[in-house]
Amino acid sequence: MHPEQRLAAVDLGSNSFRLEIGVVDHQEFIRTEYLKEAVRQGGGLDENRDLTSEAMQAGWNCLARFGERLAGFKRNQVRAVATQTLREARNRDVFLARATKVLGFPIDVVSGREEARLIYQGVANKLPPSDEKRLVIDIGGRSTELALGQGLQARKMESYRVGSLVWSQRYFPDGLLSHKHFQKAQVAAAAVLEGATNVYQAANWTKAYGSAGTASAVGDILSQAGWPADKIDREGLDWLLDTLVEAQHIDSIKLPGLREDRRPILAGGLSVLRALFDLLHIDTLEIAQGGLRHGLICDMLGERDATSDLRDTTVERLASKFQVDAAHARRVGQVATALYRQLYPVPQNGQRAQWDRALRKLGWAAQLHEIGSHISHSDYHKHGAYILDNADALGFAVAEMQRLGVLVLGHRGKLRKIETELDEEGLRMQLAALRLAVILCHARRDPEIQDMVLRRDANGMLSLRYPSAWALKYPQSAYLLQEEVVAWQKTAWALDCGEDNR
Q1: What is the DSSP letter of 345?
Q2: Which of 19, 304, 327, 478 is an S-S bond match for 35, by CB 3.0 to 4.6 Å?
Q3: What percentage of the chain has pLDDT greater than the value 90?
Q4: Which residues in 2-51 belong to E strands, given as ranges?
């Protein structure tokens, strides 16, 4: 079978790591293999929010096994994402550095809202075509995602820091089960989830769906006990609660349909689920077949191009929200990409996709480089970087937004503040093109750059040459370019700007 017909999705969840592999037949994904390991990484965060060495090793071991299975896959055939545990972990970069190597593919840490979008997309694409308004719930190990949408389109998404693993650890630490324990856990969950009551109230959806995790586990137990298959209702939840309390301890639970990997976290998940039923006035929750992994597959199947990428829409919304001067942002973007093309002409060796991605990210940085101006004019680059570092940007991985933040922070002023990031040649060249573009467009009009030549040597040093007539015509721009030379002299990298004497 041709390898281009294979796709794989990896989900690094707080409870379990999952790998789904399948083939594409007439744009339909058909699963051929599914691997799941209860890594419990969400339980390995210490009091400082650092992953313990044991938690990291367990994750690396699992990903090494997944990586062996993915041998032979190309980069565009695999998408791997991490969720709440690695969103929280302060030392996630340490874990990800080795995790990426053993898996053999990049791992994106996605924001909570992006996770909710992917979950909704995975659920909706597994359902029959319909215009019904849908509420999708996914109770994970350390977070719960809610998404409201219609048909295939998610419209409202949110993530809350409450989940089956963390709630089980916090409210059932000794495995003891009682009505008092459950009441305390449910009240605490309701307090975290209370903000969802307005947007996700029953009046805004026709049918509610539960994806993966707790919903699937509870649905399996109820089905084995004689309740309707693929549904959870209030009566079933009350029965399950009474059954667990009667058992008195998690080790004493004897329920057909309960997987052993779910036993330690069932009580916490049930508490969160009951809180959602009460807060959102849910009578029946349908068990969905799709989830996060299927959302990733849908993204890959779509192969979104530059005209339909959700990230373009996200950037446009951010620019609009913060009242960016669109004409000037477009001008800077055009100049920056023109300069970058001189540094890196269109590749002829199969690297076109990577080249396209770099250009697009440079364009997004240009589009957002003044996003902080609405807050402060003097330090707008710092405010812009802060906004991007903390924005829930749909379609973007956390690392992608951080990279945009670095470009926005570094597009003006001293370079010392991002000195470490300059060691990466790709980012350094993007930044140089952006800084030069901002200088050349300082008068907020289209600059004359047709006779300018930007080059880089084998050591990564840059030189910009322009006609002497241009320097006489635009003395302020020529002066600012010499100031830029001085700025780069204070780094390990050099920029030379001057007249072309040929």
Answers
A1: P
A2: 19
A3: 80
A4: 6-12, 17-25, 28-37
